[in-house]
Amino acid sequence: MPSPSSAAKDDSATDSDLPSAFPAGSDTESDTETETEDDLSCPPASSPFEVGEKVLASHSSSIYDARVLKSDYRFKEWKFFVHYMGWNKNWDEWIGLDRLMKRTEENIKKQEELNKKLGTLKNAMAWRVSQMKPRSPNVARGRKRKQDSIDKEKNAASSDKLVTFHIPPALRKQLIDDCEYVTHMKKLVKLPRSPNVDDILKKYVEWKTKKHGGVTDSVGEILKGLRCYFDKALPAMLLYKNERKQFEETISSDVSPSTVYGAEHLLRLFGKVILLHFSVRVTLFVLIMS
Q: Residue 5 CB: number of other CB atoms within 10 A?
């Protein structure tokens, strides 16, 4: 799917996006052919989904929040052009009724249960890969490679515990609302933000120190790298199109974005990091299983 990400997004589509699967009628057709196509193209009294309506849309076995941008009725079938909220407009597509649901409490619960199930499945797949026996006839060498792999996984697990990026449902909703405000309502975040990204990272160090009596050198280095990564990633992939002018007017060569931007854009970075981390793991799993 739609990757988070990493990554700027747009939210509009033009009539030229209408796929060739819905061709217009030809002026050279006979009266009988025209009458048949008119019958097939005549829509019912109302569309099941309105333009601008927020919906739930399935994509690649997951369910995403989306918005209907266009609707079209041809050959006795409704098609809807949707934008997956929080994702690049390149993911916008025409889909049928079989992939759309109303945003009811029951359907939202289904969405949460499915996403939770997919997370459990991913963990099960990772466990299965860790239990796979080497196919090499050289057992001794195979065991050594397996042990080396286990040692690397243990080291990676220890590193993951240093700083964990987990986005709870409330913050995921904030990401979606942030996209709505900026791209659809044309509202910009007021700058400079307080607290800014530097302040947030310092507060994290203070909290970590108070809870554990200090922070390790590794955590300190990770946070420094995160700050540097934010400064580089902000203009490259964390801004929406209509935020770029504000960035150019606010940030100069002697001003770091981390001293001006705040939680909203740092949250976008976490979303990109998590999406990238998941994509890498999926790619590795596919390569191992192939």
A: 21
